[in-house]
Amino acid sequence: MRSSDMGVVLLPPPLSMLMLVLLLLPVASASEAEHRLFQYLFEDYNEIIRPVANVSHPVIIQFEVSMSQLVKVDEVNQIMETNLWLKQIWNDYKLKWKPSDYQGVEFMRVPAEKIWKPDIVLYNNADGDFQVDDKTKALLKYTGEVTWIPPAIFKSSCKIDVTYFPFDYQNCTMKFGSWSYDKAKIDLVLIGSSMNLKDYWESGEWAIIKAPGYKHEIKYNCCEEIYQDITYSLYIRRLPLFYTINLIIPCLLISFLTVLVFYLPSDCGEKVTLCISVLLSLTVFLLVITETIPSTSLVIPLIGEYLLFTMIFVTLSIVITVFVLNVHYRTPTTHTMPTWVKAVFLNLLPRVMFMTRPTSTEEDAPKARNFYGAELSNLNCFSRADSKSCKEGYPCQDGTCGYCHHRRVKISNFSANLTRSSSSESVDAVLSLSALSPEIKEAIQSVKYIAENMKAQNVAKEEQKALESQ
């Protein structure tokens, strides 16, 4: 019957059922053949007995490990977690058949717990689960070849060396072998010379350099038999970009701030605060590193030693800063600088550090002496005002020297400059004049004392500043 609307040929129901039966018949026939094959293979099969015709012959096991993922490396607990596929191939003479007797069936998949398996375990397991999960299926071939590739997540013990953290390399070994059968019972054969990394999923923290495999034969103290094992050495390198950006660069920048402490002026009041802030920051970074590395006293990472010595230097900078501030706020009225301090910090160290002290104001002393010499001559002229003639031929007018009258205008400048004089010789010369009244002499003596005291204070402050600059 043909449908006019859809253009589809519709078969009668009996014919449709017949075609469906014809299509499903080969599938049912193949399933029936596999069912008969399974009953034939496991009718008298014992999964405990080794599959060898002669009990003195070993079972040859071809073994290979494929790395799927390096899950993590726990540096603190020294454990490496990996996702592996354990490929094991051996021949079981009890599992042979003729494909022609079972409609050409050459392969068959059966549960792994139904067949004999070599009890290969990870010797250096760190979580107590030594064996793999046997809930997977094994592939049987008509020749008797058995291929079993169970996946497993292993936590193996690994000795971590963090000397060059975070630029470190680690060598983690994984030792596989039979727990029950010695060399006379099974013979392990390594497939290839290294671990299979074709299906490896790259890790964001570690890079696998190489993973060679080796076969060993060891005689343990517990037993007289010789046992075989296959050991893979996993050489891995840490990717340091994360730690470089988040740990090393901040540590270097914070350590550089310690140098700036000595550049700050003492009057700003933030020298000690900056030192303590740097010290606290380095302490935080040291705690971060302590949480990352193993808790062992055998090895100390270089970055930990660097932070430790940096903290020591920052502590010394705090001590030096306190000493500098103590010297800065001293005054000549309360403290006197010792002679050895002047000799070391003002004479010896400046020459070693190629530093020069500011020039002294004593260079202006000759000019002051010349000025006051002229003023003294003016005063002497006053003392000789009653004479008939004056200096340089000036006539005396009404008991007053014309020269002295001409120079009288400089007397006010003399009294103003007297307080700024750094020479006491001129002041002593003034005091020796008999024309000055006792009140003026007392005032000049007071000015002399104040000037000398201020000069001593200025010299002491300059020495303290020079000492702080060291």
What is the CA-CA span between the terminal residues?
113 Å
Please identify the top-level CATH class of the largest domain: Mainly Beta
Number of strands: 14
Low-confidence stretches: 1-9, 21-28, 371-394, 396-400, 402-416, 418-422
Shape: rod-shaped
The H/E string reads HEEEEEEEEEEEEHHHHHEEHHHH
Count of domains: 3
The gyration radius over C-alpha positions equals 51 Å
Rounded mean pLDDT score: 77
Query: Helix segment count?
Result: 10
Describe the main β-sheet briefly: 7 strands, mixed
Please describe the structure with a list of short key phrases separated by commas or semicolons.
470 residues; alpha+beta; Acetylcholine Binding Protein, Chain: A; 3 domains; 7-stranded mixed sheet; 5-stranded antiparallel sheet; 14 strands; 39% helix
Question: What does this 3D model show about the protein?
Answer:
The structure is a single chain. The protein is of the alpha+beta class and 470 residues long. The chain folds into 3 domains: 181 residues, Neurotransmitter-gated ion-channel ligand-binding domain (Acetylcholine Binding Protein, Chain: A, Distorted Sandwich), CATH 2.70.170.10; 86 residues; 109 residues, no CATH class. The chain contains 10 helices and 14 strands. The strands form 3 sheets. Strands 1, 2, 3, 5, 6, 7 and 9 form a 7-stranded mixed β-sheet that branches. A hairpin with a 4-residue loop joins strand 1 and strand 2. Helix 9 packs antiparallel against helix 10. The N and C termini lie far apart (113 Å). The N terminus is likely disordered. It comes from Mus caroli.
